[in-house]
Amino acid sequence: MSNHALANAAEVLKTARCAMAFTGAGISVESGIPPFRGPGGVWSKYDPDKFEKGYFKRHPEEVWPLLKEIFFDMLGRARPNPAHLALAELEAAGKLAGIVTQNIDSLHQAAGSRVVHEYHGSTRRMRCLSCLTFFDSAAISLKTLPPPCPACGGLLKPDFVFFGEGIPSDVHAAATDLAKQADVCLVIGTGGEVIPAGRIPHVVKQHGGTIIEINLRDTAYTYNTTDYFLEGKAGTRTPELVRAVLG
Ligand code: APR
C-alpha cells in the first residue's frame, strides 16, 4: 500500500468534523472469526437459506445446531484484534463519533468502543418467539437444542437479524443519522453485499462525505465510492492509520 494513500487518508481523518466507521466480518477475521464470503467463508460451508427466519421457525431442530456451531461455539474464544482496539483509541481521542457494524460478535464493545450501532443485532441476547421475552445468551444452556424458553418453553431465537428479517428500526435510524452527519467514513472489512447495511457508505458519500476503505482486496465500493483505498489486513492498516492520525 502506498504511504501516499496512508498520509492523505490520515490528513482527511485528522481534519474531519465527524468521522465514523462502517465495519463488517473482515475486521474480525484476525480475531479468528471466519468471514461469510470469500475463501473459507461461512456461506461456502453452510447454506444461507437455512438462516432465513421462516426456515428457522419450520426446522429449529436442524438450524439450532448450526447456529451453535457457527455463532456461539467460537464466539466465546474470540478477542478484539488491533483493528478493533485502534478504533476504540480513535473514539477515546475524540476523533471517531461512532461505529455502525454488521458484525454480531460484540468485539468493538470488548475493545472499548462506546458508540456502536449493531445493524444486524448481536449474539448477546436471545428472544422467545412465543412470549417475546428477551434473555441474556450467557444464561441459556445450549446442551439441549433447540434451547427451550425458560419462561414458557417456546422457541428461542438469537437476537440477530436473519435473512428475510427487517433491521430493528431504532438501530436503522441511529445508523442512518450518523451516516448523514459524517464527513468521513472508514469502511473496514466489508464488501457491502448485503442491503440495507451496505448502503451506509453511500449515504455518507451522498451527503458529501469522504470514504476511506480498508480491505484485503478491492470491493464493489472501491472504484465508485471509495476515495482512499488502504489495501491489506484490517489488523495492520487500521492501527497504522490511527498512529498516523494520533501520533
Ligand atoms: N482484513 C480486512 N478485510 C478483510 C480481511 C482482513 N483480514 N479478511 C477478509 N476481509 C474482507 C473481504 O475481502 C470481504 O470484503 O472482509 C469482507 C468480508 O465480506 P463478508 O464475509 O461478505 O462480510 P460482510 O460484508 O460483513 O457481510 C455482510 O452478510 O451474511 C451476512 O449478516 C451477514 O453481516 C453479514 C453480512
TrEMBL record:
Residue positions binding Zn(2+): 128, 131, 149, 152
Write down the InterPro entries for this protein, in alphabetical order: DHS-like_NAD/FAD-binding_dom, NAD-dep_sirtuin_deacylases, Sirtuin, Sirtuin_cat_small_dom_sf, Ssirtuin_cat_dom
Leader sequence range is none
What keyword terms does UniProt attach to this protein? Metal-binding, NAD, Transferase, Zinc
Q: Where is the Deacetylase sirtuin-type domain?
A: 1-247
For the protein in the UniProt heading, the enzyme class is: transferase
Q: Which CDD domains match?
A: SIR2-fam
The EC number(s) given in the record are 2.3.1.286
What's the protein called, per UniProt?
protein acetyllysine N-acetyltransferase
Lineage from the top down? Bacteria, Pseudomonadati, Thermodesulfobacteriota, Desulfovibrionia, Desulfovibrionales
